Amino acid sequence: GNSVTQMEGPVTLSEEAFLTINCTYTATGYPSLFWYVQYPGEGLQLLLKATKADDKGSNKGFEATYRKETTSFHLEKGSVQVSDSAVYFCALNPNAGGTSYGKLTFGQGTILTVHP
Amino acid sequence: DGGITQSPKYLFRKEGQNVTLSCEQNLNHDAMYWYRQDPGQGLRLIYYSQIVNDFQKGDIAEGYSVSREKKESFPLTVTSAQKNPTAFYLCASSMGRGLAEAFFGQGTRLTVV
Fold first, then answer.
1. How far is the CA of A3 from the CAs of A33, B28, B36, B79, in angstroms?
2. Which of B31, B36, B7, B25 has the alpha carbon at shortest distance from B101?
3. Least CB-CB distance to B42: which of A93, A98, A107?
4. Tens digit of pLDDT for each residue in A27-58?
């Protein structure tokens, strides 16, 4: 079946530090991959996405590259801010662009705390 | 503005009562989903619907029921059969074919008192 594995948190960083949150996946075919962010007490917001191998998704200084050879989609940011403190979820849609509707499969989430 | 609206934001339920959570979207999306989130855990799929008048069980459907009478609406009922209903519930929708991301509502926090 499909699955997503994220690095365990929580992750605690100082402001302006470099961020990496690892994400690996298992899926048949060619899934689309996503990073979502959840701020306290709120729903999930799409942060970035990639729909095919070697695509790089980017938004708000965050980046992730779809690596089919390593089945990975690691999230990176060069310089984090206090306002980036949130929970980050990696997810996949196994049937994007196909003939069936896909259900999103989520990782367990990684809590990020950034200190001033 | 287009989006997904969940209501209420906070809900309290007495043990043994059924309660219904509302989810409405004006994005013209075909597919809608309900997820449950417990503290420190990821999202678990309760039910999903790909088209009006059709829905399927997700991974943790026991103790829940849904309906999809209109494209815009996908209410979730938490029944008395759900043994541990206290959680954060998230509704989402997606276009489905070819447009893969899901859009989420702000969530409903249900507490059993």
1. 12, 28, 17, 29
2. B31
3. A107
4. 887 888 999 999 988 999 999 999 889 999 99
Asked if omega into B8 is within 30° of 0 (cis), the reply is yes
8 Å CB contact between A98 and B97: yes
Work out the minimum CA distance from A13 to partner chain B, whole angstroms.
19
Torsion over CA: B74, B79, B83, B84 (sign): positive
User: Looking at chain A, which residue has its C-alpha nearest residue B91?
Assistant: A43
pLDDT digits (tens, 9 = 90+) for B51-67: 899 999 999 999 999 99
- The whole-angstrom separation of Cα A79 and Cα A69 is 27
Q: Which of A30, A37, A44 is nearest to A2 (CA)?
A: A30
Mapping DSSP to helix (H, G, I), strand (E, B) and coil, where does residue B16 land? coil
Q: How far is CA B44 from the centre of its chain?
A: 11
